[in-house]
Design brief:
heterodimer; A: 116 residues; mainly beta; 6-stranded mixed β-sheet; 4-stranded antiparallel β-sheet; 12 strands; 53% strand; globular; B: 118 residues
């Protein structure tokens, strides 16, 4: 079974500071994808960043970057220069390339609050 | 215009009523999904469809049914709504041949439907 664990239900950070959100996953697959989605108060699910497991290089998207540790099955999200608009629920998600190809497994989310 | 739309955006209904949630997409994707979000539980997969003739149950399909009317339309029905189906429902789409070279495998979500069953 595929599981995704986000151990931090809530986090807060001051504007302009850096924050890291944790995510671990469990799978027996060797080929898969990992995602971070953001859900602001508007409730829209927005893709933040994506990582292919076969790539050793960590993905980056502007102020967002990941620390992908395949052996440890860890996929943390770092947000640099936090902005008020980053306040949202963040979900880590996992997708295998096996028989359940295309199916996303989500963690329970981390509520991030950025304060002035 | 949004690539993935859901109607209605909000709905309040009573126990025992039949209700349909609709999803339309203009992204040209073959794959469509229905998820349910409950507080503290993340999103869970209800049904998914890899093309018009291919529909599959997800992890929480009991009490739900779906219809893929066309490549661009995927509807979720609650035949007899019950209060524990109160949740936020999301439709999502992704490209065909997920995992193939050049595909992105990324799922794109609609704005969600807030359903309340009294």
């Amino acid at each position: 079974a595929q599981t995704v664990t986000q151990s931090q239900p809530e986090m807060s950070v001051q504007e302009a500071e850096t924050v890291t959100l944790s995510c671990t996953y469990d799978t027996s697959e060797s080929n898969y994808y990992l995602f971070w989605y953001k859900q602001p108060p508007s409730r829209q699910m927005i893709l933040v960043i994506r990582q292919e497991a076969y790539k050793q290089q960590n993905a980056t998207e502007n102020r967002f970057s990941v620390n992908f540790q395949k052996a440890a099955k860890s996929f943390s999200l770092k947000i640099s220069d936090s902005q008020l608009g980053d306040t949202a629920m963040y979900f880590c998600a996992f997708m295998t390339r096996g028989s359940t190809l295309g199916r996303l497994y989500f963690g329970r989310g981390t509520q991030l609050t950025v304060w002035p | 215009d949004a690539d993935v739309t859901q109607t209605p955006r909000n709905r309040i209904t009573k126990t025992g009523k039949r209700i349909m949630l609709e999803c339309s997409q203009t992204k040209g994707h073959d794959r469509m999904y229905w998820y349910r979000q409950d507080p503290g539980l993340g999103l869970r997969l209800i049904y998914y469809s890899f093309d018009v003739k291919d529909i599959n149950k997800g992890e929480i399909s009991d009490g739900y049914s779906v219809s893929r009317q066309a490549q661009a339309k995927f509807s979720l029905s609650l035949e007899s709504a019950i209060p524990n189906q109160t949740a936020l429902y999301f439709c999502a789409t992704s490209e065909r041949m997920a995992g193939a070279p050049g595909s992105t495998d990324t799922q794109y979500f609609g704005p969600g439907t807030r359903l309340t069953v009294l």
